Amino acid sequence: MMREKNHLEWRNPANWLGLYWLRFYHSSHDTRLWVPKRVPLLGWTINFAHPWGVATMLTIVLVIAVAAAFDHGLFRI
Questions:
Q1: What is the DSSP string of 6-51?
Q2: Torsion angle of C-alpha atoms 67, 69, 74, 77, degrees rounded to 10
Q3: How would residue 8 be classed by pLDDT, with cut points 50, 70 and 90?
Q4: Which end of the chain, C or N, has fewer beta carbons within 10 A?
Q5: Helix (H/G/I), strand (E/B), else coil: 72
């Protein structure tokens, strides 16, 4: 039952924002944090309406930024 509901939410075009190949998913009725992109070859995306969605994206961005800063020598250990 929940799987069918999630799939119906995923298929609803109103839950996708942005360009066709770079869309953001936002559905408070979908229980999944990670959902497949509309174009399967592009991988997965985060459900920004999920309670952990924004925190997950911020964590990923922060980890990448810190790794890049270390790589460019902005921090010294």
A1: HHHHHH-GGGEEE-SSSEEE--TT---SEEE-SSGGG-EEEBTTST
A2: -10
A3: very high
A4: C
A5: coil
Question: CA-CA distance, 66 to 8, in Å (whole number)?
Answer: 38
pLDDT per residue as tens digits for the range 44-66: 999 999 999 999 999 999 999 99
Which pair of structure tokens corresponds to residue 70?
A: 């270390």
> How far is residue 75's CA from residue 58's CA, in Å, rounded to a whole number?
20
**DSSP code at position 52:** T
- Please give the structure tokens belonging to residue 26: 């936002």
Inform me whether the pLDDT recorded for 77 exceeds 80.
no
